[in-house]
Amino acid sequence: MRAFTVDRYGKTGNDLRAADVPEPEVRENDVLVQIHAAGVNALDAKIRDGEFKLILPYRLPVILGNDVAGVVVRVGPRVRKFKPGDEVYARPDKDRIGTFAEFIAIHEDDLAAKPKHLTMAEAASVPLVGLTAWQALIEIAALRKGQKVFIHAGSGGVGTFAIQLAKHLGATVATTTSAANIDLVTSFGADVVIDYRKDDFETVLRDYDVVLNSLDNATLMKSLQVLKPGGKLISISGPPDPHFARELGKPWILRPVMRVLSHRVRTAAKRRGISYSFLFMRASGAQLREITSLIDAGIIRPVMDRVFPFEATNEAMAYVEKGRTKGKVVIKVK
């Protein structure tokens, strides 16, 4: 099958390589999916560049890609939830990525039926950002009606989804974006919109319950200023904390490393009576089914920026890396 692989880590001149590779092995609880579309995420570039090699030590070459929508073609002998011909979508487990390809084998627990009214491309745009928003706002933040949440980068993939989910939960939502995207984020329900090119969010916002950060460390530290005591700062862009190392089951030697990496923000947060959490979202078919119900009910809609052909996967990656996408970028495989 055709696939795009990472052969070596590095930031400079390191395009993915188009390669012919064997079809994946289908284990007893696996579903073999013919890939119709795959979402492209900033995470893909970070993996390619080696930013996660400490915590995700893939054996190279590795097929890249963390979002998929497609059709089941074969199932393992112990699979009970799916059959050939089913339309499905997923964020594969972090140890079994590889959606920039024609086929992928996924554990059935990580899969869900594709939302009925979405195209394959639209469905492929959902899993990673949807699960990230769900795990941040529902699992970690326990966001509830009447609370206030500040979501950075509201016009991006995670931002557009998180705004809609937060509004569904009954929260007041603030976000940042450029002037060109103010109408977009307002259409999803954002109550307070800050043009990041004109205003400093930390001077405008006060007494928020939750902040969801997806930007750099400087922005992360400024975010502490908008939270009230007892508030929760959740970051999907780092730095990782010791709890994350324990969750991954990583060797004890990595825990001091992550303690050092997150020391500054954890100390500053503790001083203000705020909790800090790093989120590296996990695959979950059960949570995807909850998300599907919201999509099918019209409560949340995916936001698509561009669809690239499979052959232009490197161009799609470069487009995402510019950091100016409205919603998600997808590659059409089949």
Automatic annotation (TrEMBL):
InterPro entries: ADH-like_N, ER, GroES-like_sf, NAD(P)-bd_dom_sf, YIM1/Zinc_Alcohol_DH_Fams. Residues 13-331 form the Enoyl reductase (ER) domain. This is NADPH:quinone reductase-like Zn-dependent oxidoreductase.
